[in-house]
Amino acid sequence: MSAATATSAQKKEKVSLLATIGNNARQYGIVGALLVIVIAFEILTGGVLLKPNSFVSLIQQNAYVIILAIGMVMVIIATHIDLSVGSLVAFIGGVCALLMERAGMNWMLAILLSLIVGLIVGVWQGFWVAYVGIPGFITTLAGMLMFRGLATVIVGESVPITSNAFRGIARDYLPNILGFWGPFDGLTLVVGVLCIVGYAFSQLRKRKRVEKVGLVPEPMNLTILKIVLAAVVIAFVTYLLASSGNAEQGGIPIMLVIVGVLVIVGVLVLAYNFILTRTVFGRHVYAVGGNRKAAILSGINTKRVDFLLFVHMGFLSAVAAVCMLSRLASATAQAGMEFEMDAIAACFIGGTAVTGGIGTIPGAVVGAFVMGVINQGLSIMGVDTAVVKTIKGLVLLLAVAVDIMSKRKKS
Q1: Residue 264 phi, psi (nearest 5)
Q2: Dihedral in degrees, nearest 10, Cα atoms 182, 185, 189, 192
Q3: How far is CA 231 from the centre of its chain?
């Protein structure tokens, strides 16, 4: 190959790399913003934010945002909204507490029945939206009022949880089956290495799949850069988790497993990302959100799509309710206040379009982490709750403004 040809190839690859980054600027910008926020709060908190136990606390205290955001992003993509999830957390949490403490039910059976209640509520709300035609905003606004009222009726002031096994969902870690490797939990180190290998394999496999169908994959330099950056982040998170805990237990918190395991065939992030990007149902969600009339004309059963979306949201609300009840160790009618706002904000911060049709599960998860870091960082700093709400509102407004302005520039 001549020098001129090699130079030309390098220029084309550089242009392709810049073009790919430019086309995904929004997605990369969200991740960059999260890193900036984490670094800023790490400095402002004097290094407390990223201490191992503080990081675990960040996961345990904000798992509900991630769980709810994963369902909410699917609802918003389809041009709906769900305002009832906070009230559902209080209501289903109250049902779960009463089953254990008043009915004497085994905690695992109580969780199962609570999840079924969540599905039933999802069926109820999905029916009104999909088959009666009441807008999701109105249906879930009614649900927000109804289920908050029901939570107040059935719970009263509070129902304390006495089951240590149930309370351990939010505070305990996976068993240390591989022992400690020096000061680190062995199981966590192994899982961290497997995550790095798995991510690298998925990226390389994605390139081959794109090439196989005759499309042009992203530049190899970008793929390698993504793998290296992801490996650094995963390694650092692994270090924090492996060195967390106390003299009795540490490593991977059960709450992280729940958020992780609800990530392939049962694990929240990958399972639901798979639904949105690989299955017929996922493509139908995007089609309905992009152009509902066109989706109907193409033969998509939009009513069924809407119905299933709210059933999913009811189920995830139940999961969030169980996690929150375990963390608080007491059911109250005030539980879940403004959870819907946090979930919706996480979706919009993560790049979900206000008009529907655009959004990703990874983006919503990153948005949830942005909200979680802001909550945790300001809490460590001792900032007043009213100021925290103000800052979160400004962050949401800025995120949506950036999204709208970027679309105007493209058009």
Answers
A1: 155, 120
A2: -150
A3: 20
| Alpha carbon distance 282, 276 (integer Å) | 4
pTM for the full predicted model: 0.86
What does the pLDDT read at residue 112? 95
What is the per-residue pLDDT across 233-272, written as a single tens digit (0 to 9) for each?
999 999 999 888 776 777 888 888 888 765 443 333 334 4
The CB-side HSE value for 222 (13 A sphere, CA atoms) comes to 18
d(CA 272, CA 281): 11
What lies within 8 Å, CB to CB, of 136 at 6+ separation is 75, 80, 81, 82, 129, 306, 310
Distance between CA atoms of residues 407 and 411, nearest Å: 6
- The model's pLDDT over 90-103, given as tens digits with 9 standing for 90+, comes to 999 999 999 999 89
Instruction: Say which residues have a Cβ less than 8 Å from residue 329's Cβ, sequence separation at least 6.
Output: 160, 161, 167
- Tokens in use for 25? 């600027």
Q: Which residue has the tokens 């004309």?
A: 297
What is the tens place of the pLDDT at every residue in 270-311? 344 555 555 666 677 777 877 788 888 888 888 988 999 999
Instruction: Mark residue 331 as left, alpha or beta (left: phi above 0; alpha: psi -120 to 50; beta: remaining).
Output: beta
Please name the residues in contact with 306: beta carbons below 8 A apart, sequence gap of 6 or more: 78, 80, 126, 129, 130, 136, 288
The single-letter DSSP state of residue 279 is S
| Interatomic CA distance for residues 309 and 135, integer angstroms | 14
Residue type at 339 in one-letter notation: F
